[in-house]
Amino acid sequence: MNEEIIIAGFGGQGVLSMGKIMAYSGIMEDKEVSWMPSYGPEMRGGTANVTVILSDDRISSPYLKLYDTAIILNQQSMDKFEQTVKPGGVLIYDPNGITHHPTRTDIKIFSIEGNKIATDMGNKKIFNMVVLGAFLKVKPIVELDNVVKGLKKSLPDRYHHLLPLNKDAIMKGMDSVRPYDVKEEVC
Fold first, then answer.
1. Where in the chain are the domains?
2. Check whether domain 2-186 has CATH 3.40.920.10, yes or no
3. Inter-residue contact 56 to 75 (CB < 8 Å)
4. From the CB of residue 117, how many other CB atoms can be counted at a distance below 10 Å?
5. Nearest to 10 by CA among 98, 73, 100
6. What predicted TM-score, i.e. pTM, was given to this entire model?
7. What is the pLDDT of residues 120-160, one digit of tens each?
């Protein structure tokens, strides 16, 4: 197994945290892991992305130009990363704020209304966990129990009371992800 992932969006959406939780989960499953964040000087509100590689074999380089999966959370990231998904790969995105939806027909595309679901659940900060749940439904490359352990490891102790809410958000994302058909949307 070798999964090369880019997660991209605005700073403050939990992009880097989502990648870190995936990386911790991979470590707990004895996988080789790479976590390489990238963000502008603006931080919150600026663009941010993280490359995560989970593999059964050694990782030769964390630098990638093409990805197995792209998780896209804003229009700027869609414009930049849609074309970097390998043919046959997966693109998962939240349509909130996206004006130019994906158009490729050589990849599998999924939509998750993460922002709406998090708002409906009463806490916008769990947005990234909803999206992570969508990813885990589409590509169950790590066990849910290890994701929860990774979440606990990445959250400061004072926020551990929010672990059940975050787990619920992951489950809601798993239940709510939907295939996106480019041909239906274009017609």
1. 2-186
2. yes
3. no
4. 22
5. 73
6. 0.92
7. 999 999 999 999 999 999 999 999 999 999 898 888 899 89
